[in-house]
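Components:
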Amino acid sequence: MDYLDGLNESQRQAVEHIDGPMMVIAGAGSGKTRVLTYRIAHLLRQGVDSFSILSLTFTNKAAKEMKERINSIVGGNESMNITMGTFHSVFARILRYNSDKLGYPSNFTIYDTQDSRSLIKTIVKEFGLDEKIYKPNAVQGRISSAKNNLISPASYEANAEIVGEDRMAKKPEIFRIYKEYAKRCFQAGAMDFDDLLYQTNVLLRDHPDVLHLYQQKFKYILVDEYQDTNYSQYLIVKKLAAVYENICVVGDDAQSIYSFRGANIENILNFKKDYPDFKMFKLEQNYRSTSNIVNAANSIIKRNKDQIQKDVWTSNTEGGKINIIRCLTDNEEGRVITNRIFDIKQNEGADYKDFAILYRTNAQSRSFEESLRKLNLPYKIYGGLSFYQRKEIKDLIAYFRLAANPKDEEALKRVINYPKRGIGKTSMDSVILTARQYDVSLWDVISDFNRYPVSISSGAKNKITQFVTKIQSYGAQMDSAPAYDLANNIAQSSGILKDLYDDKSPEGVTRYENIQELLAGIKEFSVQQEEKDEQGTLSDFLIDVALLTDADQEKEEDKNTITLMTIHASKGLEFPHVFIVGLEENLFPSQLSLTSRTELEEERRLFYVALTRAEKTCTLSYVVSRYRWGQLVTAEPSRFIDEVDKSFVNHENETRGRSGGRSLSGYQRPADDRTRGFGALGGGTKRKLKPMNQVSSTPSKSGGGTTDELKVGYNVEHDRFGKGKVTALVGKGSDQKATVFFPRVGQKTLILKFAKLTVVE
DNA sequence: AACAACGGGCTTTTT
DNA sequence: GCCCGTTGTT
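Structure:
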């Protein structure tokens, strides 16, 4: 059967267009990925060399899936030779290959967000600036947006408008921080995420031979999610496509939700200017959702002023209306939605994987997590702390990074005294001081004390030198030893493995297992690389790791679970049953997006994206009061609820199930009245009910308890360590100490004056 | 130098 | 309510 037969008319036209610039505007659920994959398959069928195709996707996972689908269409494994991946991962490799031309080591480090933030913080401190004014987050955002618009530190400083903005914001020194930040990154042989694109631009600008090479290599270029590219990405694509102009961009302006990280809808307009003879294809038939959902989504998005005219329609069945549920608190929201999922699953025989709970902010996942766990339903939370952001993983990876590139200061600071080897703050402060005096990296100083005198004890110097020797020996094996062997060797000889093995608390055991999992992952990586006839050293692995996202590494056991994620993370996915939760003013739309029309329109597009994830049913929920910053605050229903055309929604006025708090269940809800003033309900409902006695030797305000309340054998609870049993008591009065055994963390000796212990039954 | 307690800041969203 | 960095104690 011909693969073109499965396409509708406009899809087929887009797939069959081979040469010359083209743009595909694809409405939600209109088979965009299908067009992209089929088009690549078609190119291969028409004899285009697989090595000459560059395909830029939004996630690495999307790239992987697309390759598999292409193979299944054309047979064989031709897709292996296509350069396919995210902007960041594709150009990280190209940069690595050409790093010498930019003065970077080929093993350059990729700083993640935490690394850059930490460096910015250090600089702010060293400059003697106020951290409350120069908040690392804000400064980082400023630097990031400069880089995404290809503004160098020098042109930043010279740009009166930008510097003026900073001065207005009372942060006139940002240009200095940017300058120092760029210098220190370079000195450390490190690039941050934005550098991967920025430096690619520098490379293509300053090295015509390199530009020429890649222009010739990539004769066919495809860009997915074009509406979410920034200026820096736009320019890379434009330069690479300048000779052959075989460029195909695919996107949907209605789904542009990343302007906060520099994405620019103007790129779509620029495209029309850059390639006046481009061909435009519109995909308007939605195959995903019921007509109620499609029409509801249309009724939302038409309120936006900025958009390309299109008419998304579907021939699918009407389906049920969009349910709107009102709950009293966020905890009730968790229970009600969870019960609803359980019901649908029972009644319709749906799978767990058919459900998604989508929210605006990661912090909202908590209440759902709790109720899902209570009902014992399997779920997976995407986002939040990913595997590679866990402390123990970052620690071990920091060793790998140091071995590859000892100038990597963020990695060095992380592990020079972990596991503990007696290199304390005092010693490191002296080292840092010397490094700044000579304007060299920390590594330069600690690897050559003769040249850079540091005023610390010879004992400390000795310990540091031992550490340096260890790292050097790792470094020597970096490009020769098999990745897994070296990684395993480092995990053991660094002492990390032992340190975690000795920690018998459940958390410690998990950490130990995580390390084992990382090592297993490295093994798998090596095997995969061998299949591709590539060596697969540890430094190759590092590039992969830095750019992986949570969605990229899915495990088998995660397959049939309920999905919890932010709406941003849900982009490109689809689920039979979708729950969009927390539809309240100041949460969704976010408080911080209410200052301008463009920001509000982006929130509205976000809502549009959320709605269009749903295939069969879509349910919205909001609460009357919600815990935020640890306090119960009243909330108002989101304006977005009213913006959905009335004919597609069904307001469920009942709050389902019995609510947990006593004071709440006694409450009679007025007919259809969005009464405020529930803030008064605060406290009471959330406190633990168990009677507890405060144990304290210092006479407290209430004049309560004395130490003799505590006896050996008592069960107590500690804020951090949880429940435990007192095994010994030493001393009297304010000096009294208690030895307590905590099943979760082991034995601890606590000074009662400080430790907050409560006696439990 | 290491550990434990405390206080401040924070919530958009991510490669 | 949680995380992180700082402060204070041994």
